[in-house]
Amino acid sequence: MKGNEESLPDPSPKMADRRPLLKKSKTNISGDSRFPGPLFPTVRRTTTDPPSRQLPSDLRVSVGSDSSPTLGIINSSGGSTSSSSSSSFSDRDWLYPSFLGPHTVRNRITVKPAPSSSKSQKLGKATAGGVQRKVAAVVDEKPPIADLPPVVERKKRNDKEVVSSQDLVTRSHSVSPGRTRGVKRSLVVYTLIFTCMFSVSYAIYLWKEVSRLEGENTNLRRLCSSKGVLGNENIRVLRHEEGSSLSDFDDPQSRVVALYTVVITLLMPFVLYKYLDYLPQIKSLLKRKVNNKEEVSLKKRIAYMVDVCFSVYPYAKLLALLFATIFLIGFGGLALYAVSDGSFAEALWLSWTFIADSGNHADRVGTGPRIVSVSISSGGMLIFAMMLGLVSDAISEKVDSLRKGKSEVIEKNHILILGWSDKLGSLLKQLAIANNSVGGGVVVVLAERDKEEMEMDIAKLEFDFMGTCVICRSGSPLILADLKKVSVSKARAIIVLASDENADQSDARALRVVLSLTGVKDGLKGHVVVEMSDLDNEPLVKLVGGELIETVVAHDVIGRLMIQCALQPGLAQIWEDILGFENAEFYIKRWPQLDGMHFRDVLISFPDAIPCGVKVAADDGKIIMNPDDNYLLREGDEVLVIAEDDDTYAPGPLPEVHRVFFPKISDPPKFPEKILFCGWRRDLDDMITVLEAFLAPGSELWMFNEVEEKDREKKLTDGGLDISGLQNIKLVHRVGNAVIRRHLESLPLETFDSILILADESLEDSIVHSDSRCLATLLLIRDIQSKRLPDKDKKSTSLRLSGFSHSSWIREMQQASDKSIIISEILDSRTRYLVSVSRISDYVLSNELVSMALAMVAEDKQINRVLEELFAEEGNEMYIKPAEFYLFDQEEICFYDIMVRGRQRNEIVIGYRLASAEQAIINPSRKSEPRKWSLDDVFVVISFGE
Q: Do both 391 and 411 map to the same domain?
C-alpha cells in the first residue's frame, strides 16, 4: 500500500475545490436485496477505469435507509471492509437509482486521503475499527453550521495539501455558495440602508440646528435692539440678507445639507435598481415568514404597471414628462444652490433657464457650477427632445388617422354608401347628377379598404362630380363604432352594396349589415337601400329590416331587362334613359291645385312632364300606374310623373287638344319565337317564368351551356320552376362550351329570333373573366351567322363596303345583326362601351343599370314600387308600339293629341322615336307644337300587359 501511495502523483492544489469527476460505470441488477428497502433491486456500479488509475486505500461513508452512516475502507486491491458484517462491501460500491434525484448522492460522505500529510499516512496505517470509531464519533457529534471548519486548508503554493480527518467530513446541511452570496448581498443592502438613514437623520439634525441658531440670533437681535446695543459699532450681530425669500437656505450648513441631498438622490436610483428585487425578501424576514412560492420579481411588476399605465391612459406620457420637468427644475436648483453663492430661489430660476435654453450656462464660473449647469442643460435637452417626440407622434398619429380614414364625419342629410364594388363608380356618377340641381351634396363611402386606395380609384373615374363631395372612410359596416363614425343616424339614405363574393355570401353579409343598422341607438333618419344578389334571399332581409328596407335584386333586374329587350328591340335604350338621372326619370310630388281634377285632365296639365300614375293617400300610399281617366284626385294624393328634374315641372293651364275619335286597331297576334340562352345563370328559373308569361304557345327555348341535362332539371326544380307545367315554352337542351367554335356551329344560330348571352354562374366572382367569355361568345356567334347569310346579302355587303376591307368582318357581323337580336350581359361598363361602338350586338346590359336603379331608390324609396311593377311579368309594362295605332300617315298633329288618342287604348304615351333617328325621345319638350308624323315612327307607352 505504501508503494501505491508513493506512485500516485501529487494532487492539484485546486482539487479540494472541484467536484469529483464521475467515472464511467455500468449498472448491474442482481437478485441480492442488500439495498435497503424491499421495493428496489440491488444496483451496483462497476468501475471501468484501467488498473493503473485505481486509487489507494480510500475511506468512504454511505448513508443507509435508517439515516445512519456506514463506513467502509476500500483498499488498493478493490476490497472493502465494513463496520457491519451484514452490510460488508465487495469490490463494487452501492449507488442509488437515477430517478431518486441528485439529493441522494449528496447524502454520501466521502473521505479522500492526503498522501503528503503525516496524519493521512497514520490514518492509512490505522485499523478499520479505529477509523470507524473515529469517523463515527465525528458524524455523531453533528456540530453546528457555524462551527464547521473549512473543507480544505491551503498552505503555501509549493506545499502539498494537508487535510485533517475533521476537515474531510462535509455534511449535507452545510452552507452553500449561493446562500453565502445571498447573505453577503443582504449585508450590503443593510449597510446601504443604514448609510442612507444615517445621512438623512444627520441632514435633519443639521437643519434643526440651523433653525435653532437662527432663532437664537433673532432673539439676540431683538434683545440688543431693546437695549440700544445695535448702535455700537464694536458689536456686530448676524443679519439675514434682505433680498432672500427663503432664509432657511442661506447659510453654509444648509448648502452642505443640499449637497448631501443631491448626492443621496443621485445614488438612490442605482441602489434601488440593483437591489429592488430584495425588498420582498427583507419584508418577509421582518415579518418572520418564509415564502417558498415563486413570485414575479418586483422589477418586472413595476415595469408591467408602467406599461399598462402608458397603454391605458393617453395622457400618461405628458404627465410623466411634466413631472420629470418639475423634478429636474427642483433637483437642479438644489444642486446649483449647493455649489454656488446665490439664494435658493435664484438657483431654481437658473435651473429653469438652463432647461429652457441650453446656452444659458455658458457664463458660469467655477468647476462645480459648470458641472451642475451642464448636467441640467443636458437633462433639459433630453426633456425637450422627448416633448418634441411626443408632439411629433401626436401630429403624425392625427395625420395618419386622417390619411387612413379613421376620423369622424360630421355631416347630416348625406347619402351613406356601405361597401365597395364595381358599381360604385356609376352609382356616384348618378348621385352627382341628381344633386346637381341643388348645387351638390355629400356622399360618404364606408368600406373595408384603405382610404387612399379608395380616393385613388374614385379619382380614376375622371368624372365631374358637379359640386358633390365624396368622403371616404375606412371601416367595417358590421361595427357600430364605425357606423357612428360616419354619422349613420343623420344620413337621409343608406345604400348597402353587394360584395364581390358569391351570391349567398354576399346576401349573408348584407343581412348582417342590416342587423347592425337596426342596432343603432340613435335610430335611422333615412331609409336603407340594400342590393341583393339572389331573389330567394330578399324576404329574409325585409323581415329583419322592416319598413325602412328597400331591396333591389341586381341579378333579377338584369335578367328581366334582358328578356324585355330581347322581345322588344330598342327598349334597352329607353330603360337606360328612364333609370338614369341624365335624362327623364320618375318623380312623385303633391300638387294641391290639382285636387278635384280627373286624371284625363291631369295628364295634359304638365307642359314639361308626363303623368304616369297617382299615389293614393286614402290607400296607405299605394301607387296606381296608368289609372282610369275618370279617377278624381283627392286631398293628399300625389302625382307620379316622368320629368327632367324635380324642379323643372309644374302644372299649367290645360292646352287645346283635338279629342277626335280614332279607330282602335287591335294588337297583332303573338307568334311563336325561338330563343337561345348561352350560359347558365343562378336565377334561370325566374327568367323562364317571365318568358312563359310573354311568349306565345309553341315557342322554343334552347339552353346551351356546360351543365348536364339531368343537373339542369334538378336545379330548375329546386328553384321553384314546374317544368311539366310550362304551356307556352318548350325547353331544348344542348350541352357544350360557348367559347368553342365547333360546339357553336352545331347550333342553328341563323334560325333564332333572339339570343341572350348570359354571364355564366361559374365566373360571376370574376368580372374580367365573365366579360371575356361573353365577348368571345358574341364574336363567334356573329361570325358564324355572317358566314351562313345568303349569297346576295354577302355580295351586296361586299359591294357597299368595298372601301372598308380592313373592317369588313365587322360590317358582316352588323349585317347579321339585322337577322337576329343578340343581348349581351357585360358586367364591366368599360367593356360595354367597346361592344356598343362596334354595333355587333343589339344592346349590352351591365351593372350600370343596377347602379341607376339604386340611385333612384336612394333619392326616393317610393320609386322602388314603380320599378317593381314595370319589371314584373304582370301588371303595367313598357312597350314600343307602331305609329299606325295613333295616327295616319303624314298626319300633322301635336304630341298632346297623340297622348289623348293613347288614352283611348288605356295607354300612356311617354315618348317616341322617329324613323330617321337612332335614339328615342322621352318626355318631349314642345308637346303643343304640331308636326308631321310617319307610319315608320314608333311610340313608347306604358300599358297593362295582356
A: no
Q: Which of 637, 632, 627, 628 minimizes the C-alpha distance to 597?
A: 632
- Helix 847-859 × helix 424-435 angle, to 10°: 40
Q: What are the tens digits of pLDDT across the range 730-752?
A: 999 999 999 999 999 999 988 89
Integer Cα distance of 877 and 545 in angstroms = 29
Q: In this structure, are 465 and 522 located in the same domain?
A: yes
Q: What is the mean pLDDT of the chain?
A: 75
- Identify the sign of the CA torsion 49, 51, 56, 62: positive
What Rg, from alpha-carbon coordinates, does the chain have?
52
Instruction: Decide: helix, strand or coil at residue 159.
Output: coil
Q: Residue 106: is its pLDDT beyond 50?
A: no
Q: CA-to-CA distance for 581 and 849, rounded, in angstroms?
A: 11
Together in a domain, 271 and 420: no
Per-residue DSSP letters for 475-499?
--TT-HHHHHHTTGGG-SEEEEPPP
Residue 752 structural domain: 674-787+814-843
Provide the pLDDT for residue 917: 85
Which carries the bigger pLDDT value, residue 643 or residue 35? 643
Nearest to 733 by CA among 761, 711, 750, 766: 711
Q: What is the pLDDT of residues 43-60, one digit of tens each?
A: 444 444 444 444 444 444
- End position of a domain, from candidates 825, 843, 861: 843
SS3 of 835, please?
Answer: helix
- Give dist(CA 471, CA 487) in Å, integer: 12
Give the span between the Cα atoms of 753 and 819, in whole angstroms: 8
Give residue 614's region: left, alpha or beta (phi > 0; psi -120 to 50). beta
Element (H, E) at 892: strand 892-893
Residues 6+ apart with CB under 8 A from 859: 434, 493
How confident is residue 937, by pLDDT bands cut at 50, 70 and 90?
very high
HSE-CB at 106 with a 13 A cutoff on CA atoms is: 9
Q: Are residues 361 and 419 in the same domain?
A: no
**Biggest alpha carbon–alpha carbon distance for the chain:** 155
Share of the chain above pLDDT 70, in %: 70
Q: What CATH number corresponds to the domain at position 746?
A: 3.40.50.720
* 687 domain-assigned: yes
**Cα–Cα distance measured from residue 787 to residue 792, given in angstroms and rounded to the nearest whole number:** 12
- What is the per-residue pLDDT for 818? 57
Q: Using alpha carbons, select from 178, 162, 173 the residue that is nearest to residue 63.
A: 173
| Other Cβ atoms closer than 10 A to 14 | 10
Q: Which cell numbers hold the place of 659?
A: 279629342
Task: Answer positive or negative: Cα dihedral of 322, 328, 331, 334.
Answer: negative
User: Rounded to two decimals, what is the model's pTM?
Assistant: 0.64
In a domain, 597, yes or no: no
Are the C-beta atoms of residues 298 and 350 closer than 8 Å to each other?
no
Position 116 scores a pLDDT of 43
